[in-house]
Amino acid sequence: MASTKDYYNILGVEKNASEADIKKAFHKLAHKYHPDKSGGDDTKFKEVSEAYQVLSDAKKRKEYDTYGQTFGEGGPRPGGAGYGGGFEGFDFSNFTQGFGGGQSGYEEMDFGDIFGDFFGGGRQRQGRARGKDISIDLQISFSESIFGTERDVLLHKLNTCTNCKGSGAKPGTKKKKCEKCNGAGRIREARKSFLGQIMTERECTECRGTGEIPEEHCGECRGLGVVKRNETIKIKIPSGIQNGEMIRMTGAGEAVSHGTTGDLYIKIHVEASKQFRREGQNLQMDLEIKLTDALLGAVYPVKTLDGEIKLTIPTGATFGEILRVRGKGVPIEHSGGRGDLLIHLIIKLPSKVSKKASELIKELKGEGL
């Protein structure tokens, strides 16, 4: 059966979108809906993450484009009945009505877990636990956005315990088999439902799915494997970054016991420049010149991001004329080159004219100028 979710629509991209477009769309939406942010939306964040997980993987994306869904190892294949084929797409959200706790004798149950176990899926089979992602905002100057920079940021977050290396055990001690799950890491339980008795499986909460527990807990993290502490993160900001762009640092988020560390997302805010304007790989600026310099030509000192240069104003320069200074713009990624600096000439006209200057202007007028 085809999936009812349109992952392309969720990310707001076309079906022929490039990997870069998909990544950019995900970063923008992940930052917008991140549950740790004010106004975040946990449901939409998970939906966006699910879409990105499929579309960012070439194999999964091909399967999704062809069949409308992806197929894991041992899962149903296209054209086969598979497990639970007759239930796919069915909404069980209201199916528990009439089976509540007091009247029928059935305990409250998570039917997503029940049907996941029954048909070979379920949340408990989705892999290792993952730490929380962290989102921060970082302001940089216009010059830093052009040439790139590095910043050290102090974060107070969960990190892997350095004393026990995340094991939760006191250094020098051993681990023993978890008695609660008998070393299996998972616990099977018989649970009642409207279908009768169903065997379900969940991760053992005692050993967190590892099957082992410390003989003695680490004194620093108290057996948790993670501790909250300050950590200085070095953030490398690439040259040419633009306002509002997001940097993702994989594994720089919060740690989780026996799982994968989350990511750090940095949203860049670029201070506006009083002198320069950016247009793609080029920089633009205005330069005021005197009327006489426009007519006769001159040399003007101009401050660029690389330092001061001498700019030659050609004879007979006109208002709005653009002079191009090559190689003084934005660095071009991977090419080693740079864009240009485009200088717009603004001819400054005098507000008052002396009698002598007036006579000279009249002479110029007589010459047809």
Explain this structure.
The chain has 369 residues and is α+β, with helices and mostly antiparallel strands. The protein has helices at residues 7-11, 19-33, 42-55, 58-67, 101-104, 111-118, 142-147, 291-296, 355-366, and strands spanning 129-130, 134-140, 149-160, 175-177, 186-193, 196-203, 212-214, 226-237, 246-249, 259-260, 264-270, 277-279, 282-290, 298-304, 307-313, 322-325, 341-348. Helix 2 (19-33) packs antiparallel against helix 3. The radius of gyration is 32 Å and the shape is elongated. Residues 73-126 have low confidence and may be disordered.
SSE layout and pairings?
Layout: H1 7-11, H2 19-33, H3 42-55, H4 58-67, H5 101-104, H6 111-118, E1 129-130, E2 134-140, H7 142-147, E3 149-160, E4 175-177, E5 186-193, E6 196-203, E7 212-214, E8 226-237, E9 246-249, E10 259-260, E11 264-270, E12 277-279, E13 282-290, H8 291-296, E14 298-304, E15 307-313, E16 322-325, E17 341-348, H9 355-366
Parallel strand pairs: 1-10, 2-11, 13-17
Antiparallel strand pairs: 3-8, 4-7, 5-6, 9-11, 12-13, 14-15, 16-17
